[in-house]
Design a protein that fits this description.
Radius of gyration: 15 Å
Strand order of the largest sheet: 1-2
Helix content: 25-40%
Number of strands: 2
Distance between the termini: 9 Å
Number of domains: 1
Number of helices: 3
Length: 86
């Protein structure tokens, strides 16, 4: 996929997810990862994007919901979704 991106090939399909909240127990994190992995395996995608959510409360006024920290996206991708072939 890296070669396709660098060559600016059209038609690359990615799927984006957010990692679980930091407040989740390890058991709940594993459960979320299992459900996401099962869903991702069924998708005809070339790559997976795990978003890094940032608290930007100083840039926005009146958020409709509070910011809740998520676990590190890199750690989530490599430790929890390691068996996903993308």
């Amino acid at each position: 996929m890296r070669d396709a991106i660098q060559a600016r090939e059209p038609g690359i399909v990615t799927y984006g997810i957010t990692p679980p909240k930091q407040s989740y127990s390890e058991k709940k994190r594993r459960c979320v990862a299992e459900r996401q992995a099962a869903r991702i395996r069924e998708l005809p995608i070339d790559g997976l994007v795990v978003y890094d959510l940032q608290d930007q409360s100083e840039r926005t006024e009146g958020r409709p919901f509070p910011f809740l920290e998520t676990i590190d996206p890199g750690a989530y991708a490599y430790a929890y979704l390691a068996d996903v072939p993308r």
